[in-house]
Amino acid sequence: QQQVKQSPQSLIVQKGGISIINCAYENTAFDYFPWYQQFPGKGPALLIAIRPDVSEKKEGRFTISFNKSAKQFSLHIMDSQPGDSATYFCAAVNYGGATNKLIFGTGTLLAVQP
Amino acid sequence: GAGVSQSPRYKVAKRGQDVALRCDPISGHVSLFWYQQALGQGPEFLTYFQNEAQLDKSGLPSDRFFAERPEGSVSTLKIQRTQQEDSAVYLCASSLGGTYNEQFFGPGTRLTVL
Fold this sequence. Notes:
The complex is a heterodimer of chains A (114) and B (114).
Chain A: E1 4-7, E2 10-14, E3 19-25, E4 33-38, E5 45-50, E6 56-59, E7 62-67, E8 72-77, E9 86-92, E10 103-104, E11 108-113
Parallel strand pairs in A: 2-11
Antiparallel strand pairs in A: 1-3, 3-8, 4-5, 4-9, 6-7, 7-8, 9-10, 9-11
Chain B: E1 5-7, E2 10-13, E3 19-24, E4 31-37, E5 44-50, E6 53-56, E7 65-68, E8 75-79, E9 88-95, E10 104-105, E11 109-113
């Protein structure tokens, strides 16, 4: 059972455009939603994260929008740059559980064309 | 300071061989996680340590997989009698533990079973 669903699988955006990646979750016990960026040959690195008591969080060009009632959240990358080309994973954590394990989505391969 | 390191970075094994993958977490991090990332997929949780105690091994796919962290720092993931389906990148992550503390990932070990 896939607990975090992510779309699209791949995305091509022109330089300066907006990249949007969407995720949906099922388990209402999740209480932390991070986004990770992964470059080839590297481990995932935390990009930005949000808690469910907040509807939006912005850090530089990256914004998370969170809809608790719909159990959906999305990542917006403004003014996308070629250096943003990477795979992006949404994730969810249940800190009330026994293990603070990350439950990842399937990933979105972003290509920003110059 | 140094991040999470993993060795070897690449491992090729013949089917049936045993392998050992090492993780050196960030100094002082009490929590250590192992994840398995199949090609084109998101990482999937394998096991979790808090100091030397293995508190969750629910993600280990079979009894051929074994992990240890005897002194609460370095961890080893061992796979016995490797199978082709074990081919994946094995990621290690560490954190300070507690709530909302970031998990820092190592670069992973790419295991190929022939």
